[in-house]
């Protein structure tokens, strides 16, 4: 007993130190284990959130691609087809050419004054038809891309709001499919409602630019290029800055709703659903984009590129047939008139549409637009 007490007296300090070290180690281990468990739980939570985010991104991308597909395969082709039929209807020049042919075959069928008036009218309307087709095709191509980017922004916002919800994106009530469809349907507004005033003002511009150009004077390809560009520039400034937006989008969304729900017999069909609030928001955003200086820049670049291509096409047709000074304007008019046909071809086979889409400045604009829309959100 005395030996045990002596052992304790000699080693009790070491025992206390050992017990202290052991106890401290145990506490540290428990703290470490608790910390490890928290880290593990956090990693599991983060992994779950990552999977949810990946699912949302995949769902968003699928939905966005569906909108892009609908726009490329349905919205733009249908709008172009409708536009082609309206321009052919409103700017049918066959009655003018028939009268001129009659006068050519029968010397007393029309007077010299009438013949000159017919030629002057044909001159103005030939350029009006081509310039209207050129401008409308270019703007439709650009506007439909704006629609897709704006819809993509709203899909992004919808995904962000619903990121903590298990509700699928397609079932969301706040961004209805009606809102998307109604907005995409505004691509037809130009052909259905804006085309008449567009043609009137394009004819005014063509009349002003062509008034000093005589039918018998030689007309070079440089002059042709300058003439078309001058008509387009003058047209774009008629009515004030950015007035041309009214050809593409209705100024009043409520009035547009009345246009859309009114049936062909003149009665209002209230069974046609339309998300007016959402449509107004989307159209307001579209107007903001279209009125921006950056969009004006790509409009100018696109129009000039299309004019370059048209003039090159006519130049190729006249190889070996035209002197350096050019051909008489009267002989050039049939070729100018026919330019509307390739301009308004089906988008999938339309070289002008494909060229506009592939212009570096246009691609950069839509890349920045999509990114900035998300940043601003």
Automatic annotation (TrEMBL):
Keywords per UniProt: Coiled coil
Q: Any idea what this protein is called?
A: Peroxisome biogenesis protein 3-2 isoform X1
Where in this chain does the entry annotate a coiled-coil region? 32-59
Annotated organism of origin? Elaeis guineensis var. tenera (Oil palm)
Give the highest taxon in the source lineage: Eukaryota
What is one process in the GO biological process aspect for this record? protein import into peroxisome membrane
Q: What PANTHER family does UniProt report for this protein, alphabetically?
A: PEROXISOMAL BIOGENESIS FACTOR 3
Q: In the UniProt record, does the keyword Coiled coil occur?
A: yes
């Amino acid at each position: 007993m005395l030996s045990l007490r002596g052992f304790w007296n000699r080693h009790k300090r070491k025992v206390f130190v050992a017990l202290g070290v052991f106890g401290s180690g145990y506490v540290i281990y428990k703290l470490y284990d608790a910390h490890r468990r928290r880290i593990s739980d956090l990693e599991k939570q983060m992994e779950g959130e990552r999977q949810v985010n990946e699912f949302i991104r995949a769902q968003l991308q699928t939905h966005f691609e569906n909108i892009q597909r609908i726009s490329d395969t349905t919205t733009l082709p249908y709008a172009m087809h409708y536009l082609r039929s309206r321009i052919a209807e409103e700017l049918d020049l066959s009655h003018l050419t028939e009268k001129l042919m009659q006068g050519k075959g029968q010397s007393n069928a029309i007077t010299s004054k009438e013949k000159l008036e017919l030629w002057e009218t044909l001159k103005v309307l030939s350029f009006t038809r081509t310039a209207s087709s050129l401008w409308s095709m270019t703007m439709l191509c650009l506007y439909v891309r704006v629609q897709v980017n704006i819809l993509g922004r709203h899909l992004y916002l919808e995904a962000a709001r619903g990121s903590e919800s298990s509700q699928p994106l397609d079932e969301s009530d706040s961004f209805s499919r009606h809102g998307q469809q109604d907005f995409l349907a505004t691509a037809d507004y130009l052909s259905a409602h804006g085309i008449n005033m567009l043609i009137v003002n394009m004819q005014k511009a063509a009349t002003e630019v062509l008034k000093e150009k005589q039918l018998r004077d030689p007309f070079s390809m440089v002059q042709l290029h300058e003439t078309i560009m001058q008509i387009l520039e003058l047209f774009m400034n008629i009515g004030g800055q950015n007035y041309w937006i009214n050809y593409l989008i209705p100024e009043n969304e409520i009035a547009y709703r009345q246009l859309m729900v009114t049936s062909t017999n003149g009665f209002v069909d209230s069974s046609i659903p339309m998300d007016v609030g959402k449509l107004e928001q989307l159209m307001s955003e579209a107007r903001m984009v279209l009125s921006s200086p950056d969009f004006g820049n790509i409009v100018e670049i696109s129009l000039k590129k299309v004019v370059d291509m048209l003039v090159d096409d006519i130049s190729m047709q006249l190889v070996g047939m035209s002197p350096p000074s050019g051909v008489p304007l009267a002989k050039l008019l049939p070729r100018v008139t026919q330019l509307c046909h390739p301009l308004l071809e089906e988008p999938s086979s339309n070289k002008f549409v494909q060229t506009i889409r592939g212009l570096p400045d246009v691609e950069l604009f839509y890349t920045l637009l999509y990114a900035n829309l998300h940043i601003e959100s």
